[in-house]
Amino acid sequence: MSESIASCGFCINRRERRMIWASLSTLATTVAAMALSLLVFRLYQRMQLSQRMGQNRTLVVLPKPVAQFFRRRRERPHLERKFPFVLDMLCLSLEAGLDFVSAIARIADQLPNHPMGRALQSLLADLRLGRPRADALRRFRLHVNLPAATRLTSLLIQADMLGAPIANLLRDEASSLRFERFQNAERVGQVAAQKLLFPLVFCIMPVVFLVVFGPLAVQLAQGGL
Question: I want to staple 91 with a disulfide (CB 3.0 to 4.6 A). Which of 76, 110, 154, 170 is the partner?
Fold first, then answer.
């Protein structure tokens, strides 16, 4: 590049050459950063639009495993909040005389646009297609991807193999899930109190001391003068 410029009648020393390369590098970095920022902004807009419209395809431009990862991460809090309700409804339906498939269908109809409803619809489709209940429950566990679902499916598979009633099992599992949620809420509250300690000590308390003791200090200073 320098030889072509020199052949045109321009003489560039080493310092000017470094400045030109630094300017070109800065320009390229700026353009790349702007393009990356625009791409991230467009992806964020697409995610927000998909959440408002209730679509399952959140990130169309990303590979399928990455899109599934973001979708499961977004749906996980909704699944955790709704899982005890599903267990209670399933227990009540079984105690009312419904079979397992009819109970799942009844609960899935009550959650049409919820991630848990879609997971139950997938479980119901597997059961209606003739898939063994153990395999359908394992697929449901992979679809939901919750520790509570893993524990529940293991218990249901064992109860199905032994022929034991599952209504009491579901009730106990729902109670344990509520207790775990209560413990998690207490843990989050304790962490929040610790996080508020720093702004309270270094931001709020100095202002309070300044407002309370500031006029007194001014009066003492004027009296001393």
Answer: 170
Domain containing 172 equals 75-182
Q: Do residues 122 and 88 lie in contact, with contact meaning Cβ atoms separated by under 8 Å?
A: no
Task: Compute the Cα dihedral for 54, 57, 62, 67 and give only its sign.
Answer: positive
Name which of 83, 77, 108 is nearest 178 in CA terms.
83
Determine the pLDDT at residue 113.
Answer: 83
Q: What is the pLDDT of residue 55?
A: 46
Same domain, 35 and 93: no
- Weakly modelled stretches of the chain, pLDDT under 70: 1-20, 22-27, 31, 44-72, 223-225
Residue 133 CA, distance from chain mean position: 30
Give the whole-angstrom CA distance, residue 14 versus residue 20: 10
pLDDT at 147: 83
Q: What share of the chain is helix, strand, coil (3-state, %, to 5)?
A: 85, 0, 15
The answer for 97, left when phi > 0, alpha when psi is -120 to 50, beta otherwise, is left
Q: Domain tally for the chain? A: 2
